[in-house]
Amino acid sequence: MTNNLDRLIELLYVERGESAPAVPERDKRALFRALVNVCPPKPAGAEFLKLQDEYLQEELRHKGITDYKSLTPMQDGIYLWQGDITTLKCDGIVNAANSQMMGCFCPNHGCIDNAIHTFAGVQLRQECAEIMKAQGRQEPTGQAKITRAYNLPCKYVLHTVGPIVYGALNARHENQLADCYRSCLTLADKNGLQSIAFCCISTGEFHFPNERAAQIAVSTVAEYKRKTQSKIQVIFNVFKECDYVYYSRLLGAN
Q: What is the pLDDT of residues 115-140, one digit of tens each?
């Protein structure tokens, strides 16, 4: 797989009109990710896609896949899982996107948008760009779009733009966050998904308070399932320990 990574890096530098530098073996994964992160959306060549897909599938096998069906539900049809959402096998995962909807362009950034686009492959940014071109405007807060998942173990990615909290949290922020969950659930049901994993939308770079975000997520999902009688299986995916505590309390109390 080292040869694949070397060739991928070489191809990315050729695309930039540059020669690939000599880098230590330990830095090659980070360099590849950084180069992919800054790539503009455009069709990739057949050789690049073949090598990229092989590399990403090998990376996924190395990290390991978690099937949501192996988890114990906290409630009927409701799961809580702490882990890397890019390794979760279910029908759809939710990406906390920005209004540009083409992924994070900051090299090696720690946000979920960056991770999902990195490990799905460059095809995801291209599909998102096509959707945005057809739409002709930035994505409004609280709505959702659906794409293929490419090299991820899920089938689809649902992209939603959460509210950005500057200053004090207010009712508009809370309503917009609830809209994100409702939009994703509605879109998932419309497309026949039987399971969906939510990340902690807006709680990272968008500064939504974690505990209140968890409360809104749990109550909105419960309300949606009650009103629509949807049978969709919902996984709340958390990364931080504080979020695991908040969701555990909320789901254990219902």
A: 999 999 999 999 999 999 999 999 99
